[in-house]
């Protein structure tokens, strides 16, 4: 049956295949328990927090009355139905065992939002217990009351039903006593009911059928993770304002519930452990970390976090932790053992040498550690650079040069780039001109073997000068000079690799230099060519834009002339100058001036006549004898004599005048000149009047 859990390509086993697990679980329901048990064990080894599989497994044994096997399962999980079944025939002793089982169960899950039925079942069980004496009856009523009072202050789905039952219970016992007790617990119940409504909003976002699998990055998993984190944050806020012990118990329960579904999420384990530590329960935090490492044995981050926790209480043995907890001598002892390990890296030597130098102030010991490491890590550029830094701090320039020479005689050219770079920087900072130039030339000769164009790598450039005289973020030239150098060097290097159009656009292909990190200066690296994914335009094929439009009259309007003046001139009313524009405005009626003002200011060529006509048709122009008599221009626009009540929209318009105009254009028929009232034309469309009959 385990073959069902195989999936993916190449027959790779996917033990967290949810679909296959569901198929196996459904098949197990149809099999005898002897055949189903291995399937359940396989499922539970993969999904140890899947409550539905535990429930299904134990019910299969209970169905065949195999109490011994059921007990073995319950040594791993508690189940109240089994406890009641086993103890129901044991009389008084059995009832007491069942009562303890209920108390044990509710101490763990009693704060769950779905725990209402368990509380109600417990109350029903207590009420059913026999009472042979008045004293036993009193004790039973007291027990029932206590359970009710615990249940009605927990935000569960059944909190209101439990409250109603509690009211009935108290009134049935003593109405006089009920009044005081109900009054005392009314506010607590109201608080629980309010918190339940808030808690339910977070609960409803959680998928309770989700199986615990390693994160795959799916959107559903991310949504569930955030839903659980929101619920945990809600519980941490203690919304019901209960005592700290009860509030912490609820947070603990919520974390435990969360881990049933996010069992493979290291951040949940870490948050859970650190929350315990912050609340003062370090022992609980340690237990959580131990469980986390059992669940996720490959998580290095959890190991580091656990180590820090252990260190905080003085219990872990690592070299840096030892130094902080037990001193340099303990760290030295660990170092002597660790360096013998075949998996020991140069970082161990660097760490211990740094401790000896900076903390123990023992430069001689640190020097000895670095020298001992050279025998194993001469081929590691990183170790050479760390050793060189240490010698520079000792002002031991002679041994710095000796170290560089020893390393460069062994390292292959392709692995010596960073060492040559540091050697060059050292000579530029501490050497004289002669030694600096010699090292630079040797560096070029050594690295030219790895370059595609070795001859160009040997050439001296201004970059060398810039590198010699730059310091930190100070440069011996302007940023413009740096960009120019980068451009010229790239062009020289790629002259034979690009076509002519690209070279013509070389400046854009190079890009710009970052001001904070100039290209190839501090490191003296060459400028990288542009990405091949960038498509550059061929400017040699570009042509000047030609709108092929006739320019309108051009004139320079004075600042006193408003937008209507410029619009009027652009419409052709002017003569190319501003002379006469003021006179024209004076003879126009105010409504016409208002219309012209509404026209958009246009610069450049004259506007399309259709645009002007469309504005005419959309504008409401009242016609009347306002102020001075209207001129002939106004009559041309209105097409009628003065009338105080007539507007442009009130007169019937020719049908489809613009459509007719477009048809004429498409047929190549020239548009007639704008007509007038005298010629029978329509001033609105520039076409001859067309009968609508």
UniProtKB/TrEMBL annotation:
Principal place of residence: nucleus
Every Suppressor of forked domain range: 16-316
Record flagged with keyword Aminoacyl-tRNA synthetase: no
Low complexity bias: start-end ranges: 675-686
Source domain of life: Eukaryota
Keyword Repeat among UniProt keywords: yes
GO cellular component terms listed in the entry, alphabetical order: nucleus
Protein's UniProt name: Cleavage stimulation factor subunit 77
């Amino acid at each position: 049956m385990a073959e069902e859990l195989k999936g993916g390509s190449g027959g790779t086993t996917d033990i967290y295949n949810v679909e296959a697990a569901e198929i196996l679980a459904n098949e197990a329901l149809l099999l005898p328990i002897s055949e189903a048990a291995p399937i359940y064990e396989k499922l539970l080894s993969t999904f140890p927090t899947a409550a539905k599989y535990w429930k299904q497994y134990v019910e299969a044994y209970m169905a065949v009355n195999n109490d011994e096997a059921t007990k073995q399962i319950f040594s791993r999980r508690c189940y109240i139905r089994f406890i009641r079944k086993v103890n129901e025939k044991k009389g008084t002793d059995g009832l007491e065992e069942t009562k303890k089982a209920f108390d044990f169960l509710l101490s763990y899950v009693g704060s769950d939002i779905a725990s209402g039925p368990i509380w109600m079942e417990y109350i029903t069980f207590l009420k059913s217990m026999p009472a042979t004496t008045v004293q036993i009856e009193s004790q039973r009523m007291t027990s029932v009351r206590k359970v009710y009072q615990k249940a009605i202050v927990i935000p569960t789905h059944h909190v209101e039903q439990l409250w109603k039952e509690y009211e009935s219970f108290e009134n049935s016992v003593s109405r006089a006593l009920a009044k005081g007790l109900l009054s005392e617990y009314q506010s607590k119940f109201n608080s629980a009911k309010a918190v339940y409504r808030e808690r339910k909003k977070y609960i409803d976002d959680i998928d309770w059928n989700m199986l615990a699998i390693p994160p795959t990055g799916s959107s559903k998993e991310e949504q569930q993770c955030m839903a659980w984190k929101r619920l945990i944050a809600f519980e941490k806020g203690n919304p019901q304002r209960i005592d700290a012990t009860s509030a912490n118990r609820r947070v603990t329960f919520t974390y435990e519930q969360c881990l049933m579904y996010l069992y493979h999420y290291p951040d949940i384990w870490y948050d859970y452990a650190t929350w315990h530590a912050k609340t003062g329960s370090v022992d609980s935090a340690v237990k959580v970390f131990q469980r986390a490492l059992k669940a996720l044995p490959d998580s290095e981050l959890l190991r580091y976090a656990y180590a820090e926790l252990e260190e905080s209480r003085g219990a872990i043995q690592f070299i840096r932790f030892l130094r902080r907890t037990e001193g340099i001598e303990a760290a030295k002892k660990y170092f002597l053992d660790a360096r013998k390990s075949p998996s020991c890296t140069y970082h161990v030597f660097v760490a211990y040498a740094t401790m000896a130098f900076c903390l123990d102030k023992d430069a001689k010991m640190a020097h000895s550690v670095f020298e001992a490491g050279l025998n194993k890590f001469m081929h590691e550029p990183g170790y050479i650079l760390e050793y060189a830094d240490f010698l520079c701090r000792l002002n031991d320039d002679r041994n710095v040069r000796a170290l560089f020479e020893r390393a460069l005689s062994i390292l292959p050219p392709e692995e010596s780039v960073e060492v040559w770079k540091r050697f060059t920087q050292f000579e530029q900072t501490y050497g004289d001109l002669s030694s600096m130039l010699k090292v630079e030339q040797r560096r070029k000769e050594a690295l030219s073997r790895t370059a595609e164009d070795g001859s160009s790598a040997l050439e001296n450039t201004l970059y060398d000068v810039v590198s010699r005289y730059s310091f930190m973020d100070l440069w011996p030239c302007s940023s413009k000079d740096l960009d120019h150098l980068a451009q010229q060097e790239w062009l020289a290097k790629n002259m034979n690799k690009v076509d002519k159009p690209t070279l013509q656009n070389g400046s854009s292909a190079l890009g710009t230099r970052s001001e904070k990190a100039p290209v190839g200066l501090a490191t003296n690296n060459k400028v990288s060519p542009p990405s091949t994914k960038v498509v550059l335009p061929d400017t040699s094929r570009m042509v000047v834009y030609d709108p092929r439009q006739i320019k309108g009259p051009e004139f320079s309007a004075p600042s006193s002339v408003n937008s209507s003046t410029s619009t009027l001139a652009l419409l052709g009313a002017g003569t190319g100058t501003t002379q006469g524009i003021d006179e024209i405005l004076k003879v126009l009626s105010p409504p016409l001036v208002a219309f012209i003002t509404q026209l958009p200011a246009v610069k450049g060529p004259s506007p399309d006549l259709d645009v002007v006509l469309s504005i005419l048709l959309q504008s409401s122009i009242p016609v009347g004898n306002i102020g001075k008599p209207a001129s002939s221009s106004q009559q041309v626009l209105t097409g009628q004599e003065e009338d105080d009540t007539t507007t442009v929209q009130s007169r019937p318009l020719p049908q489809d005048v613009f459509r007719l105009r477009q048809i004429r254009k498409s047929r190549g028929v020239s548009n007639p000149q704008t007509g007038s009232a005298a010629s029978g034309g329509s001033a609105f469309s520039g076409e001859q009047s067309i009968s609508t009959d």
